[in-house]
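#onboarding

Welcome to the new folks! Below is a worked example of what a typical request in this channel looks like: someone posts a single protein sequence, and someone else replies with the predicted structure as tokens. Don't worry about understanding the tokens yet, we'll cover that in week two.

Example request:
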Amino acid sequence: MAKFTGTIRRNDLEGGFFELVTSGGDVYRLSDAGKARAGDRVSVEGKVESGGFGIHMSGPSIKVERITVL
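Example response:
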């Protein structure tokens, strides 16, 4: 399981979803943002999903195991 820190951003593309933007500028689509909301700084533990595709046309997806608002 990997750990990421960044800021939650809402992307309105295709009905909307949440992304994690890291301080390094990497962007990951989140499978579940829990109680976190756009603008929250968070720590995310999960697994980067490889392969597959989605309609969101965003960065790789993180299957979230735990998310903590900092």
